[in-house]
Amino acid sequence: MTMGNYPAKVQYILRPGYQMVRDDELWNPFMAYAKAIRADAIMPFNLHIEANHPDLQSLRERLPIFAKRFAEVREAGMSPQINYYTTIGHGQLLPEPHAEKFTTIMDGYGNRPTGCPCPLCPDFRSYMREAYALFAGLDIDAMWIDDDFRLAGRSGTETFQCFCELHMQAFEERTGQAYSKEKIMELLLKSPQTCTEAEIALRSNWRTFQEEGLAGLASEIREACFAVNPAVVMGIMTNSIESVLHNARDLNAEIRALRTPKQAEPWVRVGGAAYTDDNLLDLLSRVHSFDILASMISEPCRLSSEIENFPWTIGGKSARGLNLELYLLTATIGGHLTLSINDTFFGFDDVSGNIQKTLGPLKHYLQAVTDAVHGKSRRGASIPFPSQPEVTARYDLNKIPGFSFNAQLSQIGIPLAPSDTSPALISLREASAFAEEEIQSWLNKGAVLTSEAYYHLREHRGMLQDCPIRVEKGEEIPQTYLVFEKVHTPRAPKWLKDKDMVNWVWIPVHTEYQIIADDGAEAWSGLYDNLGTRRNAGVVVSEHPYRIAVVAHEGSMLKETGLQWLYQQILAFVSGGEYPAMVELGVNMYPVWWEQDNQAKEAILGLTNFSLETYPSLDLWIPTGRKLAGLDILSREGVWNEAEYSAAEHPNGGIRLTLQGSSVPDHVSFETFRVKFV
Length: 678
Fold this sequence. Notes:
This protein has 678 residues and is an alpha/beta fold. The chain is 32% helix and 20% strand.
């Protein structure tokens, strides 16, 4: 990520529910709470969990209480904003009588979620224009559309949306040909490898057409809000990477639709929150999904993150887990943080007192982190994620797009950067969907390819013909035969070289593809059956014509000590010996790295401990040709001090940095370092 969309000022935006707005006994303690944690804005929901689309008169009757609350917000020095809770509908709910005339969304099997209108419905659009305008006419700074603004993921539906009569008729007018929903579904679910270019074009046309309906509704909402409040800033919330990649949501198109003459950069809240800290790694995984969503946005905007508890009552998330989440979101995406962490039903906002006690002071620290990364860029590996809908039209829509490679690497101490993807991690999905020029650019910078992806690029797209790595497709080996992986490369340490690493069922590999190292390539590991017979290479690398590694692993279940060492070596190799700091041996310790370039004199390292483990010391490997000049640590007061550490040459090149004592991140906590080079 570059600094263009990275907010310079850390902000807390609280999102209380409508029931809190209308009840003095809930509102007054909430405002005291907001002041105590140094909130910058109050963004209440304008609706409750009621009918998705209350009649306009009932909405008008709510305006006086909102006006009163927003005057208090202004007086407290905070920004009043609206979170419009329901546009299309989060899920099916019984409609009020006036909304029964709206055309309902339909999925590809004919299911209609009750109370969720199609965005093409003229009556629905007219209602939404008037409804949004009512609230935009209040003294507010921003109007946010919630994450129900999508054509996917509603109870009562199973597939893509929308196939209602309005959509089918409009698509016929667009193409000049009538298609049944069954025909469109058949085409969408067809393997893209077997589609003709004409079929791919039709898939792309259908998906673009769906998004145009959403963007058109967004444009009408923006026009209605701007007409009554020319200073208003529009904002929109995302839902998940699946809604974008699988269901063709185009965030860039929606951003364009929400620009106003006075504000060219709408707010975008990346969402799909981790609602609890029952599983700490869920927090880490959701931050990755936010990071990926942010990387798919190329239009100018201002990024924000969603932090939430569910079911919106106390006990969903500890203050310690919340702080860890806020820190990592700030260190990856930025410090514009929208929080639904107060109990909007009963008002028990902070029984332990720890949230109020920590969030206010934490803001100083987060601001110091934001200031430190200013002018720098994230660095690390990643799966590439597209911003172009024509790329996702080539995805296999029978599979929900995941990011397991990213998630797994983060758990074995490897920095990621979805907005940079250097090196790129290429699976069959990317090898099939992206243009050759884009893939070539990844290869030029160094890349890691699955054997399946490498085979596709070489055999079906004619690339990599002069590479000394071969991949042959043959009979699939039963996964249960591949019991061990052994690392043979001379660079391996004594504790690992030629030893058995567990494989078997737990670490999925592509068993039908044989990876072969011809002259000029080197096999670093092999896969063996239970009788000791070598069945395949696990990792093969080559420096010519590109620095690449071809791996048998599918990218999931990599959290194993030997694989941690192996993948850190792979990334150091394909990046040409210049890679950000990686945590050795300790797991669930995730580093984030910012610098101007890989020869800079200073880098910022954020290190989060998503585990219950504590370490007396912790080794990090920085593959680099630079020499270390010093290491500072950021105090919780936002002051840089010298860290407790030692440094030595790493046996595989670069620096072994050993954190010691209080400089090692505690369990469910974090530290920020300034790495100084000679």
